[in-house]
Each structure stands twice: as structure tokens, then as C-alpha cells.
């Protein structure tokens, strides 16, 4: 018994040490800096200011609340679209036809591209290619795509759906393949069509995957940084600035590291509360196969 416990801690130690060094210790240090006025420069004076940073977030910095609202709206739209498209793709590639496996790989490939590279790629499409099409056809709707808050928002949505739908597809494929064929066959014998099976069998049995998919897409949407930085840089005039980019600009643009850490704590609490609420609500609707 003692040997098994020793082996358990030996195997757990590398992951535990890495987690502590990369996540736990920096998080605790960040909590400390949130109550100071540190400017982020090593060797500079650090003064304890209590809850002043948290108060000033809501009284002095209006950009944080705008970024919060924009991120919330973006996350709602992105979560809905990513999961609908991902589920639709999963239903498509789990059908028995030639090339289904190839399509799985093609749909998943955008998820393998880094966020910055993906952002610059779509920036080229929205600016250069859309600009060339607008010039050739005279269609002004494609001109200055990222210079407008509305089309910039749509551009971020397109990028996000294109990148994350393939990942959600894999999550839903795994759950679809776990649905017993006997259940589907019994439904067919009883005269159920595909729409009936989708509504009464597939959708209820997909709830465990929906729980995971919603949680992952919510967290990814709220935490988006690379794509926002590369595609719009928060412009025009911070109209498309999301929370992660707003915190980054406060810390490394305005040299208000303590102030940015206070924002990050609020950000963490909000995302954790939304994630836990979603898990509780969707868990209640799960059914056993």
C-alpha cells in the first residue's frame, strides 16, 4: 500500500510541479499585485493601495465595461454558431459515404493553425482580397471591412467559427458514435424518420457532449486574445477590443500592471461563474444511454 502511494506521488509530482510553477504561483502573485500600484517595471516602487484598483475599474476606466459588453455579445454569438456548425459537421461526417474521413481532417485543420497566424491570414482576406473584389466590382460593402465596428465584429465571428467548429465537431463525433445502433434500429422499425430520431434520440443522448462543447466554446470565446490582436487590434477606436486585449493594453501599453491584474481577477471570476452555471444547467438535462 505504501509503495503504491509512493509511486502515485512520483508520477504525479512532475505535473503538479509544472502546474504550480506555470499556473498556481503566478496566479497568487497576480492576486498580490492587484492590490498595488505597480507599473510592471522590475525594480520600481510597489505601493499597497487596497481596493482602489477595483473601484477605479468601474469609475475611471470606461473601456473595460465596453470591452466586457463587446466580449459578452461576441461570446453569445460565437458559442451558438460554433456549436451549431460543429454539430452539423459531426452529423455530416458520421454518415456512411466515401470521403467522410477526409472531410473530418479538412474540417479539423483550421484548429491546428496558431491564433496570430490565423488572424493575419483573415486580415489579408478581409483587407486585400475584399478590397480587390470591391475595386473590381464596385461593391462598396466589401471595402474597409475591418474599419467598421459592425463588419469587424462579423469578421471576428467568421474567424472564430472557421477555427473552432472543427474542434467541436470532434467532440460531437465521439458522442454520436457512442449512441447504440440498436436504439436507432428500433426507432426505424417503429417508423421514425431521420428528423424524429434527431429530435427524440440523438439530441437527448448528445447532452454530455453539449455540456463539454458549450463549456469549451464559452471559455475560448471569453479568453480570445491572439485573433483579436492580429485581426483588428481592438480597432477602430477600441470598438472591437475584447477583455483579454483590454487587460493586455492596460498592463503593457499603459504600464498599469496592478490595475490590469485587478481587471484579470474580475475577468476570472466572471468567466468561472458563467462556466459553472452552464455546467450545472446542462448537467441536469443529461440522460443515460
TrEMBL record:
Keyword Phosphoprotein assigned: no
GO annotation, cellular component aspect: plasma membrane
Coarse class of the protein's main subcellular location: membrane
ABC transmembrane type-1 domain sequence ranges: 68-278
Any matching Pfam family: BPD_transp_1
UniProt record similarity statement: Belongs to the binding-protein-dependent transport system permease family.
Record-given protein name: Carbohydrate ABC transporter membrane protein 1 (CUT1 family)
Annotated organism of origin: Hungatella effluvii
Amino acid at each position: 500500500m505504501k509503495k503504491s502511494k509512493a509511486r502515485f506521488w512520483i508520477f504525479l509530482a512532475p505535473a503538479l510541479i509544472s502546474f504550480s510553477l506555470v499556473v498556481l504561483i503566478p496566479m497568487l502573485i497576480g492576486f498580490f499585485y492587484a492590490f498595488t500600484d505597480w507599473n510592471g517595471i522590475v525594480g520600481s516602487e510597489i505601493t499597497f493601495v487596497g481596493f482602489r484598483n477595483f473601484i477605479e475599474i468601474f469609475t475611471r476606466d470606461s473601456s473595460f465595461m465596453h470591452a466586457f459588453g463587446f466580449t459578452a455579445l461576441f461570446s453569445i454569438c460565437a458559442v451558438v454558431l460554433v456549436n451549431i456548425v460543429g454539430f452539423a459537421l459531426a452529423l455530416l461526417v458520421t454518415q456512411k459515404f466515401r470521403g467522410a474521413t477526409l472531410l473530418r481532417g479538412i474540417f479539423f485543420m483550421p484548429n491546428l493553425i496558431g491564433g496570430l497566424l490565423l488572424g493575419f491570414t483573415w486580415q489579408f482576406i478581409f483587407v486585400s482580397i475584399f478590397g480587390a473584389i470591391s475595386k473590381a466590382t464596385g461593391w462598396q460593402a466589401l471595402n474597409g471591412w475591418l474599419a467598421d465596428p459592425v463588419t469587424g465584429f462579423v469578421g471576428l465571428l467568421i474567424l472564430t467559427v472557421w477555427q473552432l467548429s472543427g474542434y467541436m465537431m470532434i467532440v460531437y463525433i465521439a458522442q454520436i458514435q457512442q449512441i447504440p445502433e440498436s436504439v436507432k434500429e428500433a426507432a426505424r422499425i417503429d417508423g421514425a424518420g431521420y428528423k424524429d430520431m434527431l429530435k427524440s434520440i440523438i439530441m437527448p443522448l448528445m447532452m454530455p457532449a453539449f455540456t463539454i462543447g458549450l463549456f469549451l466554446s464559452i471559455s475560448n470565446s471569453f479568453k480570445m486574445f491572439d485573433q483579436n490582436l492580429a485581426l483588428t487590434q481592438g480597432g477602430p477606436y477600441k470598438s472591437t477590443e475584447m477583455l483579454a486585449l483590454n487587460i493586455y493594453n492596460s498592463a503593457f501599453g499603459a504600464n498599469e500592471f496592478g490595475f490590469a491584474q485587478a481587471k484579470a481577477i474580475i475577468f476570472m471570476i466572471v468567466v468561472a461563474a458563467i462556466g459553472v452555471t452552464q455546467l450545472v444547467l446542462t448537467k441536469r438535462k443529461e440522460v443515460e444511454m
